[in-house]
Amino acid sequence: MAEPTAATKIWLALKRQIEVAAGDIPVAWPGEAFEPTGTFLAVSEVMTPAERRSLRASDPHRLRGSLLLRLSIPMSDKQEREVWREAAAQIATAFPADLLLEYDGQSVRVREKASVTGAYQDGGWWHQTVQVRYETSL
Fold first, then answer.
1. End-to-end CA, the chain
2. Are 97 and 110 spatial neighbours (Cβ–Cβ below 8 Å)?
3. Which residue from 94, 138, 135, 87 is spatially nearest to 114, judged by alpha carbons?
4. What are the backbone angles phi and psi of residue 66, rounded to the nearest 5°?
5. Residue 86, SS3 per DSSP
6. C-alpha atoms less than 13 angstroms from C-alpha of 35 in its C-beta half-sphere
7. pTM of the entire structure?
8. Under DSSP, is residue 136 helix (H, G, I), strand (E, B) or coil?
9. Taking the chain (138 residues) in consecutive chunks of 10 residues, what is each chunk's mean pLDDT?
10. Where do the structural domains in the chain lie, given as residue ranges?
11. What is the C-alpha to C-alpha distance for residues 118 and 94, in angstroms, rounded to an integer?
12. Best CA proximity match to 89, nearest among 33, 60, 121, 131
């Protein structure tokens, strides 16, 4: 197998930390089939194009992105919404500011502590989102 690209190494560094954050909560990974049977964590990633830092082609480029971790809880779980928000906040604690993640020589830095953002109801599900902003050099 060929050496993984920087993009793959970045994803694998992030994925490892998502697994830590999720603990026992099942994870719906992008591009993988998933049938929820209860509370789960859905993962989405948004990347911006790499930015040049200087005019020399040999200098590193900066890449920034965001992970969107959506904690989805069935409404049949008759908990107060504050309990669900706290569960999302516990996931966010796994991504403190300046956390340095690494996979096979490629490092990724969490830019600022993860934030618990908007929550909404969709059918029989309550969704609470955690946003993780990161950056790396290529």
1. 21
2. yes
3. 94
4. -135, 140
5. helix
6. 0
7. 0.89
8. strand
9. 87 97 97 95 86 72 92 86 91 98 96 94 93 93
10. 6-31+40-48+61-137
11. 19
12. 131
Give which of 66, 89, 69 is closest to 18, Cα–Cα.
69
Q: Dig out the tokens for 55 from the structure.
A: 């005019």
pLDDT tens sequence across 97-135: 999 999 999 999 999 999 999 899 999 999 999 999 999
Q: Which CATH architecture has domain 6-31+40-48+61-137?
A: 2-Layer Sandwich (3.30)
121/86 Cα distance (integer angstroms): 17
| Rounded-to-10 torsion of CA 86, 71, 79, 23 | -70
And the tokens for 25? Answer: 């909560």
